[in-house]
Amino acid sequence: MRQKIPYKIYPDAFGPPDAHLYSAMLNVQIALLSANAPRTKRFEAIIDSGATRTLFHADFLRYLGVDLTAGEPEIIQGIGGRESTYLHEIALYIPGGAVKIKAAFKDGLPVAGLLGMQGFFEFFKVSFDPEARACEIERVYRA
Amino acid sequence: MLLRSAPLNSWIALSQDETEIVATGATYSEVVERSEKAGVSDPLIIKTPDQWSPLSL
Prior knowledge:
The structure holds two protein chains of two kinds. By secondary structure, chain A is mainly β. Chain A has one helix at 59-64, and strands spanning 2-6, 8-11, 20-23, 25-31, 42-47, 55-57, 72-78, 81-94, 97-106, 113-115, 124-129, 134-139.
Protein backbone atom coordinates (compact mmCIF):
# COMPACT_ATOMS: atom_id res chain seq x y z
CA MET A 1 0.00 0.00 0.00
CA ARG A 2 1.43 3.34 -1.11
CA GLN A 3 0.20 6.79 -0.25
CA LYS A 4 1.39 10.19 -1.45
CA ILE A 5 1.02 12.86 1.18
CA PRO A 6 1.37 16.51 0.12
CA TYR A 7 3.39 18.62 2.55
CA LYS A 8 1.32 20.78 4.86
CA ILE A 9 1.86 24.54 4.69
CA TYR A 10 2.37 26.63 7.80
CA PRO A 11 2.92 30.35 8.42
CA ASP A 12 6.44 31.65 9.02
CA ALA A 13 6.23 34.55 11.45
CA PHE A 14 9.78 35.68 10.70
CA GLY A 15 9.42 36.22 6.96
CA PRO A 16 7.36 38.63 4.87
CA PRO A 17 3.59 38.67 5.55
CA ASP A 18 2.87 35.75 3.22
CA ALA A 19 5.92 33.66 4.22
CA HIS A 20 5.27 30.00 4.80
CA LEU A 21 6.96 26.72 5.68
CA TYR A 22 6.44 23.13 4.57
CA SER A 23 6.20 20.09 6.78
CA ALA A 24 5.63 16.38 6.14
CA MET A 25 2.67 15.45 8.30
CA LEU A 26 0.39 12.44 8.56
CA ASN A 27 -3.09 12.30 10.07
CA VAL A 28 -3.18 9.54 12.68
CA GLN A 29 -5.22 8.36 15.65
CA ILE A 30 -4.22 6.59 18.84
CA ALA A 31 -6.09 4.44 21.36
CA LEU A 32 -5.42 2.29 24.38
CA LEU A 33 -4.87 -1.40 23.74
CA SER A 34 -7.99 -2.67 25.49
CA ALA A 35 -10.74 -4.17 23.35
CA ASN A 36 -13.05 -1.58 21.78
CA ALA A 37 -11.03 1.28 23.28
CA PRO A 38 -12.14 4.62 21.82
CA ARG A 39 -9.72 6.35 19.47
CA THR A 40 -8.68 9.96 19.57
CA LYS A 41 -9.89 12.18 16.77
CA ARG A 42 -7.61 12.35 13.73
CA PHE A 43 -4.63 14.60 14.43
CA GLU A 44 -1.56 15.82 12.57
CA ALA A 45 1.81 14.36 13.51
CA ILE A 46 5.16 15.20 11.93
CA ILE A 47 6.95 12.46 9.98
CA ASP A 48 10.33 12.88 11.68
CA SER A 49 13.21 10.53 10.93
CA GLY A 50 15.27 12.51 13.44
CA ALA A 51 13.13 11.27 16.30
CA THR A 52 14.36 7.97 17.72
CA ARG A 53 11.01 7.15 19.21
CA THR A 54 7.47 8.18 18.35
CA LEU A 55 6.42 10.91 20.75
CA PHE A 56 3.02 12.41 21.51
CA HIS A 57 1.67 15.28 23.57
CA ALA A 58 0.55 14.13 27.03
CA ASP A 59 -2.88 15.72 26.53
CA PHE A 60 -3.88 12.63 24.56
CA LEU A 61 -3.32 10.41 27.60
CA ARG A 62 -5.49 12.63 29.78
CA TYR A 63 -8.25 12.42 27.14
CA LEU A 64 -7.91 8.63 27.16
CA GLY A 65 -8.05 8.56 30.97
CA VAL A 66 -4.46 7.52 31.61
CA ASP A 67 -2.02 9.00 34.15
CA LEU A 68 1.07 10.21 32.28
CA THR A 69 3.44 9.22 35.08
CA ALA A 70 2.05 5.66 35.23
CA GLY A 71 4.23 4.91 32.23
CA GLU A 72 7.88 3.87 32.18
CA PRO A 73 10.13 6.95 32.58
CA GLU A 74 12.59 7.64 29.78
CA ILE A 75 15.01 10.53 29.33
CA ILE A 76 15.38 11.75 25.77
CA GLN A 77 18.05 14.02 24.32
CA GLY A 78 16.61 16.77 22.12
CA ILE A 79 18.08 19.83 20.42
CA GLY A 80 17.19 21.82 23.53
CA GLY A 81 18.68 19.34 26.00
CA ARG A 82 17.41 16.48 28.12
CA GLU A 83 13.69 15.95 28.56
CA SER A 84 11.65 13.54 30.68
CA THR A 85 9.08 11.39 28.93
CA TYR A 86 6.92 8.43 29.90
CA LEU A 87 6.44 5.36 27.75
CA HIS A 88 3.01 3.83 27.20
CA GLU A 89 1.89 0.99 24.98
CA ILE A 90 -0.81 2.14 22.61
CA ALA A 91 -2.45 1.35 19.30
CA LEU A 92 -1.40 3.70 16.51
CA TYR A 93 -3.85 3.93 13.61
CA ILE A 94 -1.91 4.47 10.40
CA PRO A 95 -2.48 3.71 6.72
CA GLY A 96 -2.62 -0.05 6.21
CA GLY A 97 -3.95 -0.83 9.67
CA ALA A 98 -3.30 -0.25 13.35
CA VAL A 99 -0.05 -1.25 15.06
CA LYS A 100 0.85 -1.78 18.69
CA ILE A 101 3.73 0.49 19.68
CA LYS A 102 5.52 1.82 22.71
CA ALA A 103 5.32 5.60 22.42
CA ALA A 104 6.73 8.39 24.56
CA PHE A 105 4.48 11.09 25.96
CA LYS A 106 5.31 14.47 27.44
CA ASP A 107 3.74 17.84 28.20
CA GLY A 108 4.76 21.06 26.56
CA LEU A 109 5.29 19.80 23.04
CA PRO A 110 4.80 22.53 20.42
CA VAL A 111 3.14 19.96 18.13
CA ALA A 112 0.72 17.08 18.64
CA GLY A 113 3.28 14.40 17.89
CA LEU A 114 6.36 13.13 16.10
CA LEU A 115 6.33 9.90 14.13
CA GLY A 116 9.83 8.55 14.72
CA MET A 117 12.10 5.65 13.86
CA GLN A 118 10.58 3.39 16.53
CA GLY A 119 6.83 3.24 16.24
CA PHE A 120 6.51 4.55 12.70
CA PHE A 121 9.44 4.19 10.27
CA GLU A 122 9.72 0.48 11.09
CA PHE A 123 6.35 0.04 9.33
CA PHE A 124 7.00 2.11 6.18
CA LYS A 125 9.39 2.89 3.41
CA VAL A 126 9.38 6.67 3.32
CA SER A 127 10.61 9.03 0.62
CA PHE A 128 10.53 12.80 0.38
CA ASP A 129 10.07 14.59 -2.94
CA PRO A 130 11.06 18.26 -2.68
CA GLU A 131 9.87 19.09 -6.21
CA ALA A 132 6.42 17.65 -5.67
CA ARG A 133 6.48 18.92 -2.08
CA ALA A 134 5.16 15.58 -1.01
CA CYS A 135 6.13 12.53 0.98
CA GLU A 136 5.39 8.98 -0.14
CA ILE A 137 4.89 6.17 2.33
CA GLU A 138 4.69 2.48 1.52
CA ARG A 139 3.57 0.11 4.25
CA VAL A 140 5.97 -2.77 4.99
CA TYR A 141 4.53 -5.93 6.51
CA ARG A 142 6.92 -8.32 8.24
CA ALA A 143 6.18 -11.89 9.22
CA MET B 1 -3.64 30.76 4.96
CA LEU B 2 -6.14 29.42 7.47
CA LEU B 3 -3.67 28.89 10.31
CA ARG B 4 -2.50 32.53 10.35
CA SER B 5 -5.73 33.34 12.19
CA ALA B 6 -5.44 30.42 14.61
CA PRO B 7 -4.49 31.11 18.24
CA LEU B 8 -0.93 30.13 19.17
CA ASN B 9 -0.03 27.45 21.71
CA SER B 10 -3.51 26.01 21.35
CA TRP B 11 -5.39 23.02 20.03
CA ILE B 12 -7.30 23.66 16.82
CA ALA B 13 -10.10 21.60 15.27
CA LEU B 14 -10.50 21.88 11.51
CA SER B 15 -13.57 20.84 9.59
CA GLN B 16 -13.42 17.45 7.86
CA ASP B 17 -12.36 19.10 4.58
CA GLU B 18 -9.76 21.17 6.48
CA THR B 19 -11.08 24.50 5.12
CA GLU B 20 -12.45 25.97 8.35
CA ILE B 21 -11.50 26.26 12.02
CA VAL B 22 -14.50 24.89 13.91
CA ALA B 23 -13.13 25.05 17.48
CA THR B 24 -10.11 25.96 19.54
CA GLY B 25 -9.10 25.02 23.06
CA ALA B 26 -6.34 25.12 25.64
CA THR B 27 -6.28 21.32 25.84
CA TYR B 28 -6.96 18.43 23.50
CA SER B 29 -10.02 17.40 25.52
CA GLU B 30 -11.41 20.94 25.41
CA VAL B 31 -11.10 21.29 21.65
CA VAL B 32 -12.73 17.89 21.09
CA GLU B 33 -15.64 18.85 23.34
CA ARG B 34 -16.08 22.21 21.58
CA SER B 35 -15.85 20.62 18.16
CA GLU B 36 -18.58 18.14 19.02
CA LYS B 37 -20.74 20.98 20.39
CA ALA B 38 -20.22 22.73 17.04
CA GLY B 39 -21.60 19.63 15.33
CA VAL B 40 -18.29 18.40 13.91
CA SER B 41 -17.69 14.85 15.06
CA ASP B 42 -14.77 14.05 12.74
CA PRO B 43 -12.45 17.05 12.91
CA LEU B 44 -8.74 17.13 12.17
CA ILE B 45 -6.89 18.28 15.28
CA ILE B 46 -3.74 20.41 15.16
CA LYS B 47 -1.54 21.65 18.00
CA THR B 48 -0.20 25.13 17.24
CA PRO B 49 3.23 26.18 18.56
CA ASP B 50 3.81 29.37 20.54
CA GLN B 51 5.19 30.97 17.38
CA TRP B 52 5.23 29.96 13.73
CA SER B 53 8.86 29.29 12.96
CA PRO B 54 11.04 26.45 11.64
CA LEU B 55 11.00 23.43 13.96
CA SER B 56 13.93 21.36 15.18
CA LEU B 57 12.72 19.12 17.94
